[in-house]
Structure formats: C-alpha cells, structure tokens
Write a structure and sequence with these properties.
2 strands; 76% helix; mainly alpha; 3 helical TM bundles of succinate and fumarate reductases
C-alpha cells in the first residue's frame, strides 16, 4: 500500500537535502541558545565558575561546534529569506512584485545588522 522511502530519501533531490539541513539547523541553534543562557547565568556566579565555563566554551570540540552552528544559522537565514517570494504574493495595480524586491531588503537589513554587531564587538574588544 505505502512505498518505503528508506533512510536516505532526503538525499535524492537537492531541494529535499536543503529542507533537511534547514530543519537540522534548528537543533544547533537551540543548543547555542542554551549555551548563551548558561553563560549569562555563569556571569552572575563566582569568577572561577565563570572562567571554567569560558574554558569549556573555548575547548577545540566546542569551537568546532560553534563553527558548525554559525554555518547552520547562515544557511537557515539564507533559505528562510529566499522562501518569502513563494509564501507571500504582494500585488500592486494587479501585478505581482518580483521576488527580488521582497528578498533584497531582508538581505540588506541582515548585512547592516551584521555590520553593526561586528563593529560593536570590535569596539568592545578593543577597550
């Protein structure tokens, strides 16, 4: 009655793989949120506890995890922004607005916010 897809069905098409990776990225982002919340908690603890947690975050395995997480976050954001033209149709005078006009402001805002964060980190780190 039902055809078995097998364990690797999501590797059969690039679009399936992209959706699978985007959904997997949510797990990595959730773990990063927990790590930041623990960091905020440790900031209110004695200095030795805070430093021990910072040392944990900077061990090589965690650094690799952070790099993978940022790659997944970038992939998630990129694919999410590119979904907008398929999910919303804005019409002006009966004509649909091209997808680029919907997506470009998102990427522009993303670039501005990223630039502001980098500038802030550089400024705070320089002091």
């Amino acid at each position: 009655m039902f055809r078995s897809l097998g364990w690797t069905w999501w590797t059969k098409r690039p679009s399936y793989l992209l959706v699978f990776l985007r959904e997997t990225s949510s797990v990595f982002i959730a773990v990063q949120v927990v790590l930041v919340l623990v960091l905020l908690h440790k900031a209110g603890q004695p200095a030795a506890d805070y430093q021990a947690y910072l040392d944990f975050l900077w061990n090589p395995g965690m650094v690799v995890f952070h790099v993978i997480s940022i790659a997944f976050a970038l992939l998630h954001t990129y694919t999410w922004f590119n979904l907008l033209p398929q999910t919303i149709a804005i019409r002006i005078m009966g004509r649909r607005i091209p997808g680029l006009l919907l997506v470009a402001p998102q990427f522009g805002a993303w670039a501005v916010v990223t630039g502001l964060i980098i500038a802030w980190v550089w400024w705070v780190g320089a002091g």
